[in-house]
Structure formats: structure tokens, C-alpha cells
Amino acid sequence: MAKKDLAIVVLAAGKGTRLKSNLAKVLHQAGGRTLVEQVLRACAPLGAKKTVVVIGHQAEQVATVVEPSGASTVLQFPQHGTGHAMQVARRAIGGAKIAVVLPGDAPLIRTETLKALVAAHQREHRMKESQSVETRRHAEPKNARFDQI
Predict the structure, then answer these.
(1) Which pick of 43, 54, 68, 84 has the fewest CB atoms within 10 Å?
(2) Catalytic residue (one of 18, 110, 136, 145)
(3) 145 tagged catalytic
(4) pLDDT by residue (tens digit) across 66-99?
């Protein structure tokens, strides 16, 4: 599967209410960068056709942080959970055959892990393609049926 078939979706629309902060969760910092920046930096070497960040809570501030990375943003409003976020992102990822979906608050995700994930998917996809089976029906001799694979 070529890189043109790969899209990255980063889910960054939530409030992060458990943090008890007025700041959107993905805007908190770790290692000198926001959480969402850390995720985007890990994804960059994958060379995806498209990187889409789903934004919602404090959308303008999150977009300001995200856009310098080259990622596009889509607004999830109102926010109705993860499944709804993917519905919002679906059109933006275009014709990508594979989408890697990541939370925007996972700063410890490593590029190597993401590359291994994509490679494993590609291997599985190739295996399925190479295991296609052709079947034909034969009607010989009379009143007997033989199937051929």
C-alpha cells in the first residue's frame, strides 16, 4: 500500500474535564510541546497523504497549534463522542485506504510503533490478496459434480 493510501486522524476535540483545567487537554504541555504537537511529530515521518485533526473544544487555539505541522483541521460541533468525530473526519481523509486514528493526548506514542502498525497492516493486506481463490464447477461425468480450486 502506497503512502498515498495512508491518512492520519488525530482526535483532539475533547475538553479533558478530568484534568480540572480551563485549557483543552491537547494543549497541555509535555517535554516543551503541547500533547497534540507530540502526536503530530510522531506521525510526520509516516509520510501520510493527509493528516487531519478533529478539533472542537477551544478549536481556534488547537488549530493555531496544529496548522504549522501541515495538518488540516475539521470541526466537530457539537461533540458527540469518538464515533461522531470519525464521521466528521471521514470526508476530509478522502480516498485513503487506511487511516491511523490516534488520540491527541498520547505524547508518548513513538514513530517506530506507528511504522510497525502500518507495516503489519500492509503485510496482512498483501497476504489476503495473495490468498484469493478461483473456483470452477465441472459437470463430468454425467450426474457427478466436481469442484476445482
Answers:
(1) 68
(2) 18
(3) no
(4) 999 999 999 999 999 999 999 999 989 988 888 9
